[in-house]
Amino acid sequence: MINDEQVEVLLLDMLEKYGYDFTGYSKASLKRRIHRLYSLDKSLSFAEFRFRISDDPAYFKRFVEQITVNVTEMFRDPAFFKTLRNDVLPKLGTYPLIRIWLAGCSTGEEAYSISIILKELNLLHKALIYATDINPAVLEKASQGMFGLSQMKQYSENYILAGGTRDFSSYYTAKYSLAKLVPELKSKIIFSSHNLVSDHSFNEFQLILCRNVLIYFDRDLQHKVIDLFDNSLEELGYLALGTKETLEFSPLAKKYKRIQNEKIWRKVS
Asked: What is the predicted pLDDT for the residue at 173?
């Protein structure tokens, strides 16, 4: 087993060697994922495991892939996307340019879902979606716009429940076991690396989405990241969080008003 002290050693190594700061992440969750990798790769000792992470860039990349959580799907939580379609994005349609930040974009399914809704609202031509993640491997996959063909049935069902009215298959072409999304959907998405822990605000946005990421942070880091989002969000902009996340305990809560029953807040002061 990897013990708590060894987890701290690895986190400090990552910070000093690569500049990746995971010290504010939930320790129980991190420890569980680190131990899983340690067992999978059958490291002879903790010292060898630590050496490989510090001295082998390819293995470090694998380490980051394994300890960051990348569970997503297109139009996940359809009711949320229906609210975006009906109540949020039409209001942003009055802006000359709609700037959206999707933080923790993982393999890109959520970014492409937003792109589809923007297209159907005839807003894609004046929108920019900045899709960021700490994990370079998932960004590479996201930029390809290809997903398993077997996933399309579930994605199509989610799309319909989220208010979609078109034939979902018109948004991709099938090739062997893969579905490749049409290039137009990617044309307004910028995939790039961003570390919520250590990087700063890089633009002003009318909509920020960070769903099911804060649950892996401790309370202090959650407050720090929400402050980053607040500094990056225009007045009357929208902030969307995951189903188990909230602004209620944030010192900034009084600046925001929740929209309907979804985890979407509007900046009102």
From this structure: 97
